[in-house]
Queue: 2 jobs
Job 1
Amino acid sequence: MSPSPPPQGPPLPWRIGVKSKRVLTALTALVIAGSGVLVTTPSATAATPLQELVPQPVQIQPHTDITFTLTTDAKIQIATDSARKPAELLASILRPSTGFPLTIADGVTSEGIVLLNNADPKVGQDGYQLDVTPKQVIIRANTTAGHFNGISTLRQLLPPKAEAKTKQAGPWQVPGASILDYPRYQHRGAMLDVARHFFTPDQVKRYIDQIAAFKINYFHLHLSDDQGWRLEIKSWPELTKIGGSTEVGGRKGNLYYTQDQYKDLVAYAQTRGITVIPEFDMPGHTNAALASYAELNCDGKKRPLYTGTDVGFSSLCISKDITYKFIEDVVKEVSAITPGQYFHIGGDEALSTPDADFVKFMNRVLPIVKKYGKTTTGWHEFIKTTKDTSLVPQFWGTETSDANVAAAAQRGNKILMSPANRIYLDMKYNKNTKLGQDWAGLVEVKTAYGWNPGAYLNGVGENSIRGVEAPLWTETLKTSADIEYMAFPRLPVAAELGWSTAASHNWDKFAPRLGAQGPRWKVQGISYYASTQVPWKK
Ligand code: IFG
């Protein structure tokens, strides 16, 4: 008589690392050899999708006796219009792969996927509840953002082929569960530098799609630098005509977004629950502007266009009034087409601006951003020039102490964490990585994961953290494949650090979940770096 299978207890805890799995296998073998009876231990690798979610939700209650199957007559039902964009996003993803109509219906009448409001207040603005029953998947949220985040989780509970752009065979099953989830931080960001190398609107949209799947909710576009000015400013047309005509390496072209294209990118991001933060770096990193207008230079002479990768050699002319007219025109035009609350003024590496002038500059510029209804964010250097606690310094240093940032935190500023030696996605993984740079060190996946945003900077505790953002600088990147190689798998690492609880931070538990994303990325055509530190699922 064959032994009854072991009770289907809770799946093996993710504490089982690679080493202990070998021990487990050896033990199992021993049992087989010894007693001649096959005792199947619940394998640590036969994970259900509930054990493979990135970022890790706050609470998951599996219901192993329940499976929901999406069928052709399923509808996506919304209780109010606030859930329409999330419903449309989900439909746009599942219709191609399932071939189902997945019509969107107002009101909850039948089987399928249901987006309701009235979620538990505990989930706040960005959280959600996701309940899988035999006939329905119910996502409750208090806001549109919450529904977007619930949908990102549902996508990961479906088979990876749900992400395919062509019709796949089913079944389309979702494991029974009750999930209650909400983020640790309000800001989970990704930055793309489109100034060093220009990326087309479609390439930017591709990256937006990829970051949205990990509950990223801010997309920071680095739109100007020494090598390029990338957004049309109608009152200063030479900025793109000249400043947008080249890039690192010297490629020539109309390498910029018209304001219509920018508005389209902003709207596209919104349909994925993402808010765009435009950055115009100043007073340094401004050679493209200085090459476009002679009058912006103190000596009245245009600078030559620059296609190299040095930093710190340029500065707007602090003493000239026209500099602030220029900045006001830029802030005015861009704020008018940017629904998001934040305007990024850069402020980094102003090495050619005397310190006193830097302070003078910021004292004139910060009020301009406020005048057009936006809240300034910027690389952390600017924060020493102001006592305004509503402004957001983005820490990008490699040290774990910064007196000005700690003082700002003390006063009440919320800090956006982007330590370069942890989460700069353009850092090489290892010395063999062809793309990227290494000035902040080599950043393998485990290094990117191995820090606590709430305890990283001395004097900057959990309550002073606004969130985590992963910048991707593009001095060495030209294609979407280049972006994906550097961003995956470390962007999902940043997403986990920004969303999941500090208590859930554990590499041995996280690595298998990250590895389980591999098949999904393969279906999506993401050219990720298959780090040997991660147990990639086949
Ligand atoms: N530092 C510069 C970036 C870019 C980066 C590349 C900041 C804030 C090095 N400034 O990071 O312009 O060149 O890793």
Job 2
Amino acid sequence: MNVAIDGPAGAGKSTIAKRLAKELGYVYVDTGAMYRAMALYFLEQGIDASKEEEISAVVDGIDISIRYQEGEQQVFLNGENVNGKIRREEVGNMASATSVYPDVRKKLVALQQKLASDTDVIMDGRDIGTCVLPDAEVKIYLTASSATRAKRRYDELQAKGESCDLEAIRLDIEERDERDMNRETSPLKQAEDALLLDSSDKTIEEVVEIIQKICQDRQKESKML
Ligand code: DC
């Protein structure tokens, strides 16, 4: 059984998917981390996000792979573990800007589909239910208002002792939504058969519980067939 969780930045997808994977004994696949690893390569090579031809010319030569250490996904870029480098805002924005290109998506979608064919996964991203795993048994579209998402991000940064501006974070989130939802190739949208879940007024535990119940019901149904 595969579980697809899509939704905009900051909706809580990864926190929730990680917890669910633990509860259900599935492998968690964070697809955003793969787009971020590729974006890191473009940043390190000084390749401009607007240069599609230049990006397409190098994509085939970039090696992105995934390994698991103590249950945690580790992303390798050309053999180097880049988990510690890909969480910066700059990398997230570059990932959003370069994930619009079909050549970038083709390569990473193939890797994601390969991972899901080997084992049961909970995969999160933007196009999992619509493109990567169209036959996933459970599909969730997890969202929250941009104000809620910005406040969560602000609290996270504050807790790390980083200075930040709530309004700037909100604008950044809205800009990213705009790009992810309106690109031509595999834009972020709710799959027709996905359940819409708004986490604005819910705790992480409540959301995990709702999705866990859906997964368990689906498992029971498939055993009865
Ligand atoms: O989930 P994230 O913030 O780590 O993702 C970073 C960017 O990568 C996101 O803004 C858009 C892109 N992305 C994508 O296009 N498709 C996915 N399945 C996952 C991420």
